[in-house]
Design goal:
Largest sheet: 5 strands, antiparallel
Number of helices: 5
Order of helices and strands: HHHHEEEEEHEEEE
Radius of gyration: 42 Å
CATH architecture of the largest domain: Roll
Length: about 325
């Protein structure tokens, strides 16, 4: 008989099975995937927003730049029309001349000498018509305004000891430089006339101090004589005929006659000569004078003088 003790001893031990639980990672994977997707979308939206903002800023800046470059032609015309009326209509009556001078002074910037408009006319000049040709900005930020004008000069000339009435109609381009401040204008330099078909040199209206040494070469007298001859030819010659005296030909083509050199200052500019010249021209019919300021860059090649550059100042 087997005892209970032996039964217990011979009994097989049943090993306990350890249960393993696998962690479910699917939820975490889905969470991470959606998080990455959301971050990507947010980054895309932010990039798009920044890009749109930059484009809007650039567009606004471009519009502002375009707006700054737009020239208010109507406003310029409203200002220059009455000035041209006063400038171009000249009477031989002294009292009317004084009145004209006073009216013109109101249009001028402080740096412009109004005495240049004073004239001793012996005839009358009448403006027949005017038309705005162009209005552009120069490097100084001022406006270069060009009008096509038609005017009549009426005076007298001596012929065989008698005074004979003379009437002459002419077309010309009138050049006016305007400075602008707070939407208001002023004439920034002396106006000047050119023949309609002339080639216009670049214009710099700003005042500047010439920091150059005085011209001290031995041919100073010859250089001054050339300047005088040049402006005599400039007044009387055709534009194309000035090619032998200057690089970019222009002239008055007989519109006005040479009167005199008011002032001529010569300076050294490297190997060239810079001539700052104030010249007086006159209408031969009415004796109305016009004063203009020029700068000439003159080269010397074996005593042959040549104007490389002419600027209206």
């Amino acid at each position: 008989m087997v005892s209970i003790k032996d039964k217990i001893k011979n009994a097989k031990k049943v090993e306990k099975t350890k249960l393993r639980y696998e962690k479910d990672t699917r939820k975490r994977t889905v969470f991470i995937t959606y998080s990455i997707l959301c971050l990507t979308l947010m980054a895309s939206f932010m990039s798009l927003f920044v890009s749109m903002s930059n484009n809007a800023t650039e567009t606004t800046q471009q519009k502002q730049e375009v707006k700054q470059d737009v020239i208010n032609v109507a406003s310029i015309k409203n200002y220059t029309d009455p000035f041209i009326n006063e400038y171009m209509n000249v009477s031989q009556d002294r009292e009317k001349q004084d009145g004209r001078l006073e009216l013109l002074q109101a249009f001028l910037a402080d740096n412009v000498d109004s005495n240049a408009f004073d004239t001793s006319a012996t005839g009358d000049q009448t403006l027949n018509s005017k038309a705005l040709v162009s209005a552009t900005k120069n490097k100084a930020g001022n406006y270069n305004v060009v009008y096509r004008v038609n005017f009549t000069s009426a005076g007298k000339t001596q012929q065989n000891g008698k005074e004979i009435p003379v009437t002459k109609k002419q077309d010309a381009d009138l050049h006016i430089e305007l400075a602008e401040k707070d939407g208001k204008y002023a004439v920034a330099s002396l106006p000047y006339l050119t023949a309609v078909a002339s080639s216009q040199a670049s214009i710099k209206g700003e005042n500047r101090t010439i920091e150059l040494d005085a011209y001290d070469k031995s041919d100073e007298k010859e250089m001054e004589a050339f300047v005088t001859e040049f402006f005599q030819k400039y007044a009387s010659s055709k534009t194309e005929d000035m090619a032998y005296m200057m690089a970019e030909p222009e002239s008055l083509n007989g519109l006005l006659s040479y009167s005199k050199i008011v002032e001529c200052d010569l300076y050294k500019q490297k190997s060239d000569c810079l001539a700052a010249v104030e010249v007086e021209f006159v209408d031969p019919t009415t004796n109305i004078t016009t004063t203009e300021n020029f700068e000439l860059t003159i080269t010397d090649s074996n005593n042959h003088y040549f104007v490389e550059k002419l600027e209206h100042k």
